[in-house]
Every structure is written in structure tokens, then in C-alpha cells.
Design goal:
- The chain is 49% helix and 21% strand.
- It has three domains: 121 residues; 93 residues, Alpha-Beta Plaits (2-Layer Sandwich); 92 residues, Endonuclease/exonuclease/phosphatase (Deoxyribonuclease I, Chain A).
- Helix 1 runs antiparallel to helix 2.
- It has seven helices and twelve strands.
- With 320 residues, it is an alpha+beta fold.
- Keywords: Coiled coil.
């Protein structure tokens, strides 16, 4: 409530809205009104407003400073953790650098051991042969006796009997495995030299068809060798398929350049081969001397995986 005194109005100081600042301004106004010093009144107003602004800023800044302080604390913690992580990484790098040569040496020793193990396995299989395509049950209940007579007879070898240590089908019966076609036959020869004779006789015999099935003879290799041969053949087939080339002949000879020359026999007119330095692979194409084939281009893989020959035969362009 305002009470008029002369030309100046006074207020009830007990009201809650009558703050100390207002009280100070009110007093300054009374003094200025009484003394007539309005410069002092203006200065008091400026001081009061400044004080209010400072108080307001302090209140606002307090709300900003608190989260900034919290963020600063978290940042310090993160910097400390990063320092610890960097130190641990540095320690691990030092340890890794120290152990890397040892690990590499151990890997080399392990590979040597695996190579020796694979070599031993292949050595243990060197007297084995795989017969693929022979109908199930052809050998009866005595497979050893059957194949001792069957092999030389079907291949036209000049012997009545070849001694075997054992003979059996590989893998589970077809009715259990679910695979189509007869299982391969694994035979172990008593004499290694007979293996080479059988393979040579099979090559000379050519295509062998028994009871409507094509029968083939192969060497018996370890699982790892078979896997690598499949991968190599797959790479060759993919490469040839990409170039849209039809395959006429592909045979692994395991011979080097000099050894391939032994194929230059009397009936051979032209020879094309590709070799591998370690005798792990190799291919050769032989053309009869009476074959009217004119070569126009040839290409061979430096890894001994395939050789391609393009030419003209009876007026037609063909690729071997």
C-alpha cells in the first residue's frame, strides 16, 4: 500500500516483493528527493542494476560450470585410461616383436614335420592302387584272390597272377553313404615294381569298359595330396573356362623339361609340354607323326598345370 507524503510515495516494507534492492533504491530516491542530488541517485541505480546482473549471471553460470566440471573430470579419467592402454599396447608390441622370430621358427619346424609326415604317409601308400568304376560285388567274398587274377587278365599282362597283400572297398557301403556309383577298390601289392607294370598296362590298354562301366587305375595318394591336386585342377579348369577353351587332354606327368624329352619316340611327330621345377606337376601333348596338324599358336603355364595348342587339322581350327 502506498502512503502519500508531500509528493513522495512510501511503501509497506513488510511485503515479500519488497526486496533489499528495492529498499535500497527507495531509500536512495528519498535521499535524492530530499537533497536534490540526482547524480547520486543515478549512481545508486547503476550499482543496483549491476548487482542484479552479477547475481543473475552467477546463477546462470553455476548451471553451466557444474556439467563442465563433471565433463572435465571424465575427460581426465579418459586421458588416464588412454595412457594406460597405450602403455599396455606398447608392452604387447615389445613382447610380440621379441616372440615373432621364435613363432616364425616354430612354424617352419612345424611345416617341416608336416611335410615329413605327409611324405611318410605317401611312402606307406606307394604300393597301393585304386581301381575306380568296378561294379560292387564283382570281387565276391575273396577280393584278394579275385584281383590277383583279374588285374593281369583284364589288362592283358604277360602273367597269370600278381601277388597282393590285401584288397578292399573304400568307405562305407553305398546304401549307408548315400553316394551313387560303386566304391573305389584299394589294393596293396606285395611288390612295388608290379604297380608300375599295372599302371603302364592300363595306359596301353586305354579305355576299359566292364559290364557297362568305365574302369580306371590310379595311384593312391594321401588326403593332402589329393586335396592339392583337386585345387590345382580346379584352378586350371576355371582358367580355361574363363577363356572359353575346350579341354582335349590334361595329364599330370611329374616330369621336368629334360625328362619330358623321353616322350620323343619313333611315332611322335610333335610334342608340347609344360613342367614344374619341383616335379609336383606337369603336362604333355603328343601328336602322331602322320597327323596333318599345323600349329598356329601355343601357350603353356609356367607352373606346369596346362599347355594349350591351337592349329589346323583337316582344314578345321582346333585347340588341344
Amino acid at each position: 500500500m502506498c502512503v502519500q507524503t508531500k509528493t513522495f510515495c512510501t511503501y509497506n516494507n513488510n511485503k515479500p516483493w519488497f526486496t533489499p534492492q528495492l529498499r535500497m533504491l527507495h531509500q536512495a530516491k528519498e535521499e535524492a528527493y530530499t537533497s536534490g542530488d540526482w547524480v547520486l541517485f543515478k549512481q545508486l541505480i547503476v550499482n543496483c542494476v549491476t548487482a542484479n546482473i552479477e547475481k543473475m549471471l552467477d546463477s546462470k553460470l553455476a548451471n553451466i560450470i557444474k556439467p563442465v566440471s563433471e565433463f572435465s573430470g571424465k575427460l581426465d579419467s579418459l586421458i588416464q585410461r588412454m595412457g594406460t592402454a597405450e602403455q599396455r599396447i606398447s608392452d604387447l608390441e615389445d613382447t610380440s616383436a621379441a616372440t615373432a622370430p621364435r613363432v616364425k621358427a616354430l612354424e617352419g619346424e612345424l611345416q617341416k614335420a608336416l611335410d615329413r609326415l605327409e611324405n611318410f604317409e605317401n611312402q606307406s601308400r606307394r604300393q597301393n592302387l585304386r581301381i575306380v568304376g568296378l561294379n560292387e560285388g564283382s570281387e565276391g567274398r575273396t577280393p584278394v584272390e579275385f584281383f590277383e587274377k583279374w588285374i593281369p587278365d583284364v589288362l592283358g599282362m604277360q602273367t597269370d597272377r600278381i601277388k597282393l597283400d590285401r584288397a578292399h572297398r573304400t568307405g562305407p557301403p553305398t546304401r549307408l553313404s548315400g553316394k551313387e556309383g560303386p566304391r573305389a577298390v584299394l589294393v596293396r601289392l606285395h611288390d612295388y615294381t608290379n604297380k608300375q607294370k599295372i599302371l603302364q598296362a592300363a595306359r596301353n590298354r586305354g579305355t576299359l569298359s566292364i559290364d557297362g562301366s568305365n574302369v580306371s587305375f590310379y595311384q593312391d595318394f594321401s588326403v593332402e595330396v589329393v586335396r592339392r591336386r583337386k585345387e590345382s585342377r580346379k584352378a586350371v579348369l576355371n582358367s580355361l573356362k574363363k577363356d572359353k577353351i575346350q579341354i582335349a587332354f590334361l595329364q599330370e606327368t611329374h616330369l621336368n623339361d629334360e625328362e619330358h624329352k623321353k616322350y620323343r619316340r619313333e611315332w611322335v611327330g610333335q610334342i608340347f609340354f609344360s613342367s614344374h621345377s619341383t616335379n609336383k606337376r606337369g603336362v604333355v601333348i603328343l601328336l602322331h607323326k602322320n597327323l596333318p596338324f599345323t600349329v598356329t599358336a601355343s601357350f603353356k603355364d609356367t607352373e606346369g598345370r596346362f599347355v594349350l595348342v591351337k592349329g589346323i587339322l583337316h582344314g578345321e581350327v582346333i585347340v588341344l
